[in-house]
Amino acid sequence: MIFLSSIKNKYMCGIVGYIGDKQAYPILINGLHRLEYRGYDSAGVAVVSSENQLNVYKTKGKVSDLESFLKGKNVSGTVGIGHTRWATHGEPNDINAHPQCSNSGNLALIHNGIIENYTILKKKLEKEGFKFISETDTEVIVNLIEYIKISENVDLLNAVQMALHHVVGAYALAIIDKSDPNMIIAARKSSPLVIGIGKNSEEFFLASDATPLVEYLDKVIYLNDGEIACMRKGEKLKIVDIDNVKITPKISKLAMSLSQLEKNGYPYFMVKEIFEQSQTLSNCIRGRVNREGDNVVLSGVIDNKDKFLNTNRIIIVACGTSWHAGLIGEHLIEELCRIPVEVEYASEFRYRDPIINKGDIVIAISQSGETADTLAAIQLAKSKGAFVYGVCNVIGSSIVRATDSGSYIHVGPEIGVASTKAFTGQVTVLTMLALCVAKLRGNIEDQKYKLLTKELALLPEKINETLLCADKVEKMAKVFTYAHNFIYLGRGYNYPVALEGALKLKEISYIHAEGYPAAEMKHGPIALIDLEMPVVVVATSDRVYEKTLSNIQEIKARKGKIIAIVSKNDTAIKEAVSNYIEIPNACEAVSTILASIPLQLLAYNIAVNKGRNVDQPRNLAKAVTVE
Questions:
Q1: What pLDDT is stored for residue 310 in this prediction?
Q2: Which residues lie closer than 8 Å to 579 by C-beta, 6 or more apart?
Q3: For residue 384, which of 333, 403, 457, 608 sits 20 to 30 Å off, Cα-Cα?
Q4: What pLDDT score was predicted for residue 40?
């Protein structure tokens, strides 16, 4: 697989649009539900009625609050746009919600991104007599477009083109005009935007990603940076750039099914995504690990074997959960390939003038493919001559376009904000990458290579076995639901697993939790151990097992409450602790994947017991693409 090229992205919201012969509102509201994992502090729609009235409705809260607010209101019409927001400029309230309207009320606009020079533009517009009621940069854009449309006496498309020449920042936007009601204009720069091609290629859908489109069509166009789409009812799609150069778009087929976007009887997407990891990792390894389990082929590595053969250093850049996967990748690549690896927070990497040499390989990891800091790190690495390899989940995303090559994790849409199957997919791809590179470079013995490859082939089966612990974890969670703090410990490969387990608990239960290398307990954190402190220890059978057992004894001596993740053949730790969860025996690399699953379940059950909204934790959105 070869990834395409693009540039930096910032967004935190979801946008949707429709123009055709169907009623727009049901499509918009369904799309907003699909996109709510991108932001859920306010929502709104704008629909052009059959009388050419522009009806704009918006409210603070979730999409369900918008639905309640709209009961009895006129939402009829076949042209409309909708938005679900994660606030960047202006607090979450009715006024700051999108759509934002121009002073005349003729234009309504929705926007993902950040306009960096909006204060300068706002002051200029105020001098021209424009009034602003919101705190958003979006209201500035829509009034800038209106000002140019009137003062230059141009149509909406030309006004948008001219306005965007003055805008500095990132945007995916859609705009409708009451005076020309059968048209939607959409534009993209560094924020994702997908156009769905409907019936007879004269019906159009618009969204931040493909999830709202899959039940209506299977043909889409991923807009590139600098492109503007003019969707007019009953006419062919027109795409131009801001200089009015005509663009011939590439039409892609959606590789997604509706069932992937439904809960299928589960109360939350998160728990559904935990329990489908056997299937998602089967998809991840399919065609890469052969049926016999003795060979790994990763086309992104094979197609660029000279890069991997000749490199002297690999740098992994990522954020959050992806950073934890990168730490496991560091262990794998250094042990199997004997290549030095550095793992960097993408948010710090770009600001510290890192030393990057030609011949270095930078591996960028992101579930969404839209993480702004990771995209900026990619641009920096490429400017220094590095070869950039992406590990991503979302087809057609910005990171896919920005990297030189890469591998999809193929785990399907992840709707729950707290990542689960994407993490295990990332670790699986990094394991395959390490094995593939190690074999290319001749750094791994054939017996070890086949052993690890066989473990990968057996991974889906072992995940199913691991998930049998679910009932035990649910009961255990009731004991620990009301703890105020947690410590997570692990050594070697299991240290990143401990970090990831702590992050999951923090994200969805709002309990403070910290992950540490188990040996670091004596250097400070052991002072926190008492009867009220639960300590989760990832203590699988590995080369540092005896050391971890000693750490457990230290905690036990101070009356800490221990939850241990142990291998099936364990005896010593089971005798030492009151609470333990077994996982199947596996090599160190694969056991990290298995050990993460009970920690996902523990966080999930504690959050449910505390009455949290597991899929939409406060202050978080699925793709963190603002600085």
A1: 96
A2: 476, 479, 561, 562, 563, 564
A3: 333
A4: 73
Going by DSSP bridges, is the β-strand pair 485-490/534-538 parallel, antiparallel, or unpaired? parallel
> What proportions of the chain, in percent to the nearest 5, are helix, strand and coil?
40, 20, 40
422-434: buried (b, 16+ CB within 10 Å) or exposed (e) per residue? Answer: bbbbbbbbbbbbb
pLDDT (tens digit, 9 = 90+) per residue, 498-523? 999 999 999 999 999 999 988 787 78
337 among known catalytic residues: no
Q: What is the assigned CATH class of domain 468-616?
A: alpha beta
pLDDT tens track for 333-382: 999 999 999 999 999 998 888 999 999 999 999 998 888 889 899 999 99
Task: List, in order, residues 6 or more apart from 351 with CB less than 8 Å away.
Answer: none
Locate all alpha helices (DSSP H) within 171-215, ordered by sequence.
none
What CATH homologous superfamily does 14-256 map to? Aminohydrolase, N-terminal nucleophile (Ntn) domain (3.60.20.10)
What is the pLDDT, as a whole number, of residue 621?
60
The 8-class DSSP code of residue 267 comes to S
Considering the candidates 58, 189, 462, 622, report the single residue annotated as catalytic. Answer: 622
The tokens 């270095």 sit on which residue?
360
Homologous superfamily of 263-457: Glucose-6-phosphate isomerase like protein; domain 1 (3.40.50.10490)
Domain boundaries in the chain?
14-256, 263-457, 468-616
Ranges under pLDDT 50 in the chain: 1-11, 624-626
Three-state DSSP class for residue 113: strand
Question: Do the domains spanning 14-256 and 263-457 agree at the CATH topology level?
Answer: no
Q: Where are the alpha helices (DSSP H) in 290-420?
A: 299-302, 305-310, 320-337, 346-349, 372-383, 398-402
Instruction: Pick the catalytic residue from 8, 13, 58, 506.
Output: 13
Looking at residue 10, its pLDDT comes to 37
Instruction: Show Cβ contacts of residue 140 under 8 Å, excluding neighbours closer than 6 positions.
Output: 115, 118, 121, 122, 125, 132
- pLDDT at site 12: 66
Sign of the alpha-carbon torsion through 287, 293, 295, 300: positive
Is 622 a known active-site residue?
Answer: yes
Orientation of helix 470-480 relative to helix 588-609, angle to 10°: 50
CB 65 within 8 A of CB 92: no
